[in-house]
């Protein structure tokens, strides 16, 4: 029976969906406001532990779970809807928005260069984590082009997204960032689609600005990162 379940074409995607919905409904039912109780964080942790305990090979799980990734592109495109609804805010803040995203991309690249230099990180690892703040598709393509390690890149992208979703709102509150436009840009620039999911929870303006930040950050990262690694 167990082997039959593992061989099913829906095992991975069903496990991902059921686990996530369990923690999502639990959060809604108990009205948990603690940012550490993030459904995405807990469902990921549980799946990892489950695969380790049951000794299920990751490839078996990913055989069907990988189809979730195929929906990332159309879902990202759908984020243009809230952006269109908030086109007025976009026009009113266009200069600040562009400058903020540019500064975010350059700042991230410089910080990574400083850290890599300080700890004497191998170039392959540095190339792998440099594009961690953009969507998986862009990060993987850029990492492979630079000579990075795809597995490390995926981990970096995941950690960046999780960090933004879990700690992002608390960090914004700590630094008293109350402007919705600024909140959305911060989450989208630093934590790509996962951060945008949290921005959508904060409000429509935050979600719209975060959606814009994902696109612009992805484009700028492809330009900025190759330049930044020359300083290593």
Tally of helical segments: 14
Helix content: over 70%
Distance between the termini: 54 Å
Rg for CA atoms = 19 Å
Mean pLDDT score: 86
Which residue ranges are poorly predicted, with pLDDT under 50 across at least 5 consecutive positions? none
Main β-sheet: number of strands, strand sense, barrel status? none
Protein topology:
Layout: H1 2-6, H2 11-30, H3 39-54, H4 58-65, H5 67-70, H6 72-78, H7 80-85, H8 87-92, H9 94-118, H10 123-129, H11 136-146, H12 150-174, H13 180-202, H14 204-228
Helix pairs in contact: 2-3, 2-4, 9-13, 9-14, 10-11, 10-12, 11-12, 12-13, 13-14
Written account of the structure:
The protein has about 230 residues and is mainly alpha-helical. The protein folds into two domains: about 70 residues, no CATH class; about 150 residues, no CATH class. The termini are far apart.
Spell out the key features of this protein:
232 residues, mainly alpha, 0% strand, globular
Question: Short description, anyone?
Answer:
By secondary structure, this protein is mainly α.
């Amino acid at each position: 029976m167990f082997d039959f379940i593992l061989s099913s074409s829906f095992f991975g995607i069903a496990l991902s969906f059921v686990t996530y919905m369990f923690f999502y409904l639990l959060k809604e039912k108990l009205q948990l406001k603690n940012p550490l109780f993030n459904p995405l964080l807990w469902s990921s942790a549980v799946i990892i532990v489950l695969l380790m305990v049951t000794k299920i090979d990751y490839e078996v799980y990913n055989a069907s779970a990988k189809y979730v990734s195929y929906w990332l592109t159309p879902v990202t495109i759908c984020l243009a809807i809230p952006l269109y609804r908030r086109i007025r805010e976009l026009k009113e803040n266009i200069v600040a928005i562009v400058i903020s995203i540019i500064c975010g991309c350059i700042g991230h690249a410089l910080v990574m260069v400083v850290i890599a230099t300080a700890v004497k990180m191998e170039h392959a690892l540095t190339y792998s984590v440099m594009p961690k703040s953009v969507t998986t598709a862009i990060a993987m393509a850029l990492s492979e082009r630079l000579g990075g390690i795809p597995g490390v890149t995926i981990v970096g992208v995941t950690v960046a997204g999780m960090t933004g979703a879990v700690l992002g709102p608390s960090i914004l509150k700590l630094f008293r960032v109350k402007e919705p436009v600024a909140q959305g840009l911060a989450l989208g620039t630093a934590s790509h689609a996962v951060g945008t999911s949290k921005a959508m929870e904060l409000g429509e303006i935050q979600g719209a600005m975060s959606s814009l930040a994902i696109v612009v950050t992805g484009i700028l990262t492809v330009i900025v990162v190759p330049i930044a690694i020359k300083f290593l």
